[in-house]
Amino acid sequence: MTAASSDIRDKGLADKGRARIQWAYSEMPVLQILEARFARERPLAGVRLSGCLHITTETANLARVLTAGGAQLLLCASNPLSTQDDVAAALVQHFGVPTYAIRGEDSRRYYQHIHRALDHQPQITLDDGADLVSELHQSRTDLLAQVVGGTEETTTGVIRLRAMAAEGALRFPLIAVNDALTKHLFDNRYGTGQSTLDGIIRATNILLASKVFTVVGYGWCGRGIARRAQGHGARVIITEVDPLRALEAAMDGFAVMPLQEAAACSDFMVTATGDKHVIDKAHFEAMKDGCILANSGHFNVEINLPALEALAVDKRRPRPSVDEYFFQDGRRIRLLAEGRLVNLAAAEGHPAAVMDMSFANQALCVAHLWAHQGEFANQVHGVPREIDEEVARLKLKALDLSIDRLTEEQSTYLASWREGT
Known about the structure:
There is one protein chain. The protein folds into two domains: 3-183 and 350-398, Rossmann fold, CATH 3.40.50.1480; 190-345, NAD(P)-binding Rossmann-like Domain (Rossmann fold), CATH 3.40.50. It is 45% helix and 16% strand. It is built from 17 helices and 15 strands. The chain has helices spanning 14-25, 29-41, 57-68, 85-93, 107-119, 131-139, 155-166, 181-204, 220-231, 243-251, 259-263, 281-286, 305-311, 342-345, 352-371, 385-398, 408-414, and strands at 48-53, 72-77, 99-100, 124-127, 149-152, 174-176, 212-216, 235-239, 255-256, 268-271, 291-295, 312-319, 322-327, 332-336, 380-382. The strands form two sheets. The protein has an eight-stranded mixed beta sheet. A seven-stranded parallel beta sheet has the order 3-2-1-4-5-6-15, with helices on both faces. Strand 13 and strand 14 (332-336) form a beta hairpin. Helix 15 runs antiparallel to helix 16 (385-398). The longest helix is centred in the middle third of the chain and has 24 residues, at 181-204. The radius of gyration is 22 Å and the shape is globular. Its main location: cytoplasm. Keywords: Cytoplasm, Hydrolase, NAD, One-carbon metabolism.
């Protein structure tokens, strides 16, 4: 399969996309190091990779590393609204990577593109959200025997894959890149925090200072969103179902209350849970006039869109990425980015500097899977500690930061139980 067989919006956007890819690359020093290493060592020579990923500038730089390592890579979109069309064009025209992704594609075309990625007969899969793996297990089971393993980048995808493993349905091993410390401590917290606020501000141009801003879910993504909103001067509320996370949010200084109570007083509500219909009919009925809803989770299921549509008597689009729903009683509810990933649908996604670490994990885990094929059970595995630490060391080096090392005496002390007070 060649790049000529791709399905993208406009090849004429390729030069613009290449310039933006190069801009992001300047913020990704770890990937630069890995690209040189992969080009020298060729750890993926001839390996067929299919990636169902957000087609962004950062993803394009991951593609550079994988292809430098010898991989035969094909990409499709992991969300209909996350594709950057100029990047897709550059991947095809300048980097020779077959790409099937068009911003705004409908569900039919989205799944057609996933099946084109599966037609590539991947030996390793890369996923954002597990749609590729799910479709492979449900409708292309003839391809499963040749799959060595896969990687998953998102919280939502890891949840799905663990559910598959718990049912005994997972037919090849997956590495949960999302769970790497150098991923979720930085990408989820700082990347999601900044990019979610970026999407909300671009979409609305509404001042956040003094507004009541509710974050639904206090995982690593929710923590990042809450801190960034607080930094803008918003009064932040956290809603949770996990008592430990709720307690943490309270001790971090945020108001904590049930979602139904928060709905009645919030100017903004942002979901970051990975679950379905978290904001539901009863919450819409309680919301104040003008409440703005956004989703930072991977799939557009966290806000019950059918219920919202059913309650509305009219709908308008006053700005790009904003749909305004009018209720019978005169209230308006404003939904951003059709309830999809607001940071990618209304902005550009995570900054390159945090994706540098996430995608370094991705590249190293793909190489690790290939080098150690047959050694993993068909379960969801964590990123090997040595890979996590290597990424951290490379990032520190790129930032020109040095750290201390344990002395031999200190190492011996930590390894012994005999010496006490």
